[in-house]
């Protein structure tokens, strides 16, 4: 049996997650369908972090003592594991606070390159240059590019979405021009689950000399991702959405690009030489990691990577596809429910956002919460996408390795109950 066809032993997995054993409102068993916001954490991750603090706590890359050495090993060991997990070289993995910071790192490095006399042309952004993004982005992969354009006088352009929530690629070729400095595109929408053809977009962008950054916050936790095979220049994700701790994320950057890129944040740990007149910087990835790093979080992230690798990312993706298919089938049968985004699992991950006719998403969320079903409501930090799909807000269920078909059924029962409660059409 290959990893892709292996089934997850969901009962065994659930036993690893203490939060899933909780009862919540009204004594109901927690049905956690909000992993797109943040995942629950297994004992293995909690233990790794605790054990670091208990037995190895020290600042990495500093002390000449035993604990300092152990902390450095834990931190660099985590980098090595993350690199192997996403098909990168060790030097291509920059540790950040989260995906948001990883994306901002590139955007600020580009404006730093623009103002520095010695800035590389590859990163310099001038008036008349363009950044291309899409209407499908999480704000984390939109606002930093708006801000970069404001700082530099460049123009932001974007690809739209089709009514079924796919990326509208009809104008891809004409939208990427010789003036395009960078294309920023999601690898999996956090609202519709849509998986755009990032490798194809990267191919077109590279033909025209543009850089490509993909927001992998919702893909790395849920499907096998090989940064090199994807052909992107930068890729960003967060630890907390992939069973790991908060406060740690990753920027993958192609080695030659990181080498040529100026730093974003500066200070200790990232310098080569400091004089009062000025400083020089270390090679990547240290150049982009100022200050004492998040070592306990790195140990937790390494444990999360081990956990997911043990399950096999092919099996993780297959499990989520089965949950998504069941959710699409089940929700489609409820009169008055409109699913946002693709109605099949083809090129679609496990985020299912929907509207319930006549019931405000916050009311749907509140009724579900009364039943112990945790979902997210609102615009999910993707306001332009909601506008493009003609809705103000939605209710969103997201799935992960520990979810079951019975939990999807609990969601559907809860939606029907909300419809009855608010006297909505059924
Ligand atoms: C697609 C996508 N990109 C970026 C982010 C930002 O992640 P973080 O808040 O961990 O930086 C999220 C978080 O929800 C997301 O779903």
Task: Detail the topology: elements first, then pairings.
Elements: H1 10-15, E1 31-32, H2 43-56, H3 66-85, E2 93-96, H4 99-115, E3 130-134, H5 143-152, E4 155-159, H6 172-175, E5 180-186, H7 198-207, E6 211-215, H8 227-230, E7 234-238, E8 249-253, H9 255-260, E9 271-275, E10 278-281, H10 295-311, H11 313-332, E11 337-339, E12 351-356, H12 361-370, E13 373-374, E14 376-378, H13 383-388, E15 394-398, H14 405-421
Parallel strand pairs: 1-13, 3-4, 3-5, 5-6, 6-7
Antiparallel strand pairs: 2-8, 7-8, 9-10, 11-12, 12-15, 14-15
Bound molecules: pyridoxal-5'-phosphate.
Summarize, please.
This protein is α/β, with parallel strands linked by helices.
As a percent range, the share of helical residues equals: 25-40%
Average pLDDT level:
96
Query: Which hetero ligands occur in this complex?
Result: pyridoxal-5'-phosphate
Q: Label the overall shape.
A: globular
Order of helices and strands: HEHHEHEHEHEHEHEEHEEHHEEHEEHEH
């Amino acid at each position: 049996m290959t990893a892709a066809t292996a089934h997850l032993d969901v009962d065994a997995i659930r036993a690893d997650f203490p939060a899933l054993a909780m009862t919540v409102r009204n004594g109901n068993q927690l049905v956690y369908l909000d992993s797109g916001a943040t995942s629950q954490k297994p004992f293995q991750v909690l233990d790794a972090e605790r054990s670091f603090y208990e037995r190895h706590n020290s600042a990495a890359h500093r002390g000449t003592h035993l604990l300092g050495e152990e902390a450095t090993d834990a931190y660099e060991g985590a980098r090595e594991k993350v690199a192997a997990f996403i098909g990168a070289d060790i030097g291509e993995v920059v540790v950040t606070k989260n995906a948001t910071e990883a994306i901002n790192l590139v955007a600020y490095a580009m404006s730093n390159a623009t103002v520095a006399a010695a800035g590389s042309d590859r990163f310099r952004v001038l008036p008349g240059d363009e950044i291309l993004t899409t209407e499908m982005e999480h704000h984390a992969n939109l606002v930093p590019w708006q801000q970069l354009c404001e700082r530099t006088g460049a123009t932001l352009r974007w690809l739209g979405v089709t009514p079924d929530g796919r990326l509208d690629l009809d104008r891809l070729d004409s939208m990427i021009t010789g003036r395009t400095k960078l294309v920023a595109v999601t690898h999996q929408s956090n609202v519709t689950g849509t998986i755009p053809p990032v490798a194809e977009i990267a191919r077109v962008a590279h033909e025209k000399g543009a850089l490509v950054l993909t927001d992998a916050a919702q893909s790395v936790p849920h499907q096998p991702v090989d940064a090199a095979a994807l052909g992107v220049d930068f890729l960003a994700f967060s630890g907390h959405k992939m069973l790991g701790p908060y406060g740690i994320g990753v920027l993958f950057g192609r080695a030659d690009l990181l080498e040529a890129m100026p730093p974003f944040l500066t200070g200790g740990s990232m310098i080569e030489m400091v004089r009062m007149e000025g400083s020089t910087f270390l090679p990547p990835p240290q150049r982009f990691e100022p200050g004492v790093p998040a070592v306990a979080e790195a140990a937790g992230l390494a444990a999360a990577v081990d956990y997911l690798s043990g399950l096999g990312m092919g099996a993780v993706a297959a499990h989520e596809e089965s949950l998504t298919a069941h959710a699409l089938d089940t929700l489609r049968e409820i009169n008055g429910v409109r699913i946002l985004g693709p109605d099949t699992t083809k090129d679609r991950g496990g985020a299912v956002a929907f509207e319930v006719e006549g019931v405000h998403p916050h009311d749907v969320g509140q009724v579900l919460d009364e039943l112990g079903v945790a979902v997210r409501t609102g615009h999910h930090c993707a306001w332009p996408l909601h506008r493009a799909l003609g809705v103000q807000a939605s209710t969103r269920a997201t799935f992960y390795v520990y979810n079951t078909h019975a939990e999807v059924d609990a969601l559907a029962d809860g939606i029907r109950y909300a419809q009855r409660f608010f006297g909505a059409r059924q």
